[in-house]
Amino acid sequence: MLGGVKTGVRAAAERWLFQLRERETGEVILNMRRVFIVPTRAGLGYALLLLILFIGAINYSLGLGFALTFFMAACGLVDMYMTARNLALLHLAPGRAPAVFAGQEAVFELFLINRGALDRFAVHIDFIEAGQPRHITDVGAGASAAVQLATASGTRGWRAAPRVRLQTRFPLGLFKAWAYWQPDVKVLVYPRPEEQAPPLPLAGAAGEGAGGAGEEHFAGIRAYRTGDSMRHLAWRQIARFDAAQGGQLLSKHFEGGAAGAPTLDFAALPRQLDLEVKLARMTRWVLDAERAALPYAFRLGATHLQAALGEAHQDACLRALALYGSPA
């Protein structure tokens, strides 16, 4: 219990001290109150050198020693100001966050916008959980820079962007300035497709002979099209043509008895399967149907989609799978 209290007090102190905000919508400006600065190891060594020079100048009454010491101290102060100024008044804005499958890295696009007249150099940026920032960018005066930060996607559903830390040691490296930003952006994580899923549940496939669904009415031979079943290849006709002389793949064409559009129905899956396994299987079937260019219907709880094909239909199905059982 005491440990929990200490953690809560520490978190509250960090929020107050480092100006940690909740999710910030839209464009954010890093004012000077949000920029923090401390000396680096090099900066501490520099300060120690100044102290030694100052003591030596006093001990030996060296006018040039005083001049050198004060000049170097002034350079340090200028470096401190320039380091803080390299971050201050930057504008930050969230960008796109494309959906991913569970197990993949979630990628967030973020924009650094410089509306000032000074260039910003060597700005390090990354999520806090990454430790040391992995991305370095420059932002010219009146320009902007886009960075893409990656993090583990976790489980299906919405994945909010972690807190971002911006850091710089420009120009001399004597000081380190940093600021925090919590962008209001999230990525949708689809269920991870099942590795060894059964074949698509083609309509009319059950109860038919060895010929399979859709082979009752043979309508002729046509050129092979992407997505045609390998079972429908016209091997006899293909064998008559020499590939070296311009031969091509041919498929058998059927009419009337063709297999109908498959229906991907969550309720039809075996009851003994775990929920996440069912969602993973449905995800695999959606991808397989799209890859085979085979229109498919989709049923999941209250979501009933008519047979269709294409990116919009696929996204609607995968979105329903990702958010199934989640609060609205």
Using brief descriptors, characterize the structure shown:
single chain; 328 residues; alpha+beta; five-stranded antiparallel β-sheet; four-stranded antiparallel β-sheet; 6 helices; 17 strands; 29% helix; 27% strand; elongated
What's this, in brief?
The chain is of the alpha+beta class and 328 residues long. 29% of the residues lie in helices and 27% in strands. Residues 204-216 have low confidence and may be disordered.
Provide the succession of SSEs: HEEHHEEEEEEEEEEEHEEHEEH
Largest sheet, in brief, is: 5 strands, antiparallel
What is the tally of helical segments?
6
Number of strands: 17
Strand order of the largest sheet: 2-11-10-6-7
| Unreliable sequence segments | 204-216
User: Could you tell me the mean pLDDT?
Assistant: 85
Strand content: 25-35%
Structural class: alpha+beta
The global form is elongated
